Amino acid sequence: MNDLLNNFFDWQLIRQVLPDLLTYGLRNTLVLAVSSALLGSVIGMMLAIMGLSHRRWLRLPARVYTDVFRGLPAALTILIVGEGVFSAQISWLASPYPVAVLAMSLMAGAYIGEIFRSGIQSVEKGQGEACRALGLTHGQALRLVVVPQGVRRVLPAMVNQFIGIIKDSSLVYFLGLVTTQRELFRIGQDDAVTAGNLSPLLATGLCYLLLTVPLTHLVNYIDRRLREGSRPVVTAEEPSPVEPKEALA
């Protein structure tokens, strides 16, 4: 029992690894996650619009893209994209960081596209008909009315997807990172291998919880506010005026 506790709760090792985790490890993880989420949102919105198009030549590529990147394991996608970019010898993608952001964005775009598509489809058809009655084109109706409402409805799912991106960032170590480029998982893994102890990985897990637990509660808060906002406001009915009794003759 003591060996088990020492293997996971060596506080000296945890104190040694925490400075690296909280300085460049946490920073690098957030850079990867935020960059991938932003680029993935752009890709996802394009896929959602294409998937809802009446033109088959737009719907089919969006469907194939979504099926492929949702079906492949994240580690395999990162390796395939990384090896492909490095083989092509693209100068501005020579660093592992742009390659990691590209790979994670391609994966995130497939999931975010489905989130956006479901949100847009949840908007009542009467909204689009009202826009056409006002003289708006289909594109204007989507941009000004339908898409903003759909995005608002899928905010909890978007935050959940961002949590997934944070955790998927632990796989970029496959691409090879120098010391200052290491994210949370790679720092914990390297220190655990060096010390022959799993306490650095436990500290890494605590850092991931520091990021994901507040976001989880944020999801619940947003979802609760959206549900409360969608409930109809019930007001007490005003009492009908009582007709005055006729004066006694």
Describe the fold and architecture.
The protein has 249 residues and is mostly helical. The chain has a single domain, classed as MetI-like fold. It contains 10 helices and no strands. The chain has helices spanning 2-8, 11-51, 56-71, 74-88, 96-121, 125-133, 138-153, 155-168, 184-195, 199-230. The protein is globular, with a radius of gyration of 26 Å.
Key features of this structure:
249 residues; MetI-like fold; single chain; mainly alpha; globular
- Helix and strand composition category: mainly alpha
Helix content: over 70%
Total of domains? 1
Radius of gyration: 26 Å
Organism: Streptomyces antnestii
GO cellular component, one term: ATP-binding cassette (ABC) transporter complex
GO molecular function: transmembrane transporter activity
InterPro entries: AA_ABC_transptr_permease_3TM (IPR010065), ArtM/GltK/GlnP/TcyL/YhdX-like (IPR043429), MetI-like (IPR000515), MetI-like_sf (IPR035906)
Q: SSE layout and pairings?
A:
Blueprint: H1 2-8, H2 11-51, H3 56-71, H4 74-88, H5 96-121, H6 125-133, H7 138-153, H8 155-168, H9 184-195, H10 199-230
Transmembrane segments: 30-52, 72-91, 201-222
Organism: Streptomyces antnestii
GO molecular function: transmembrane transporter activity
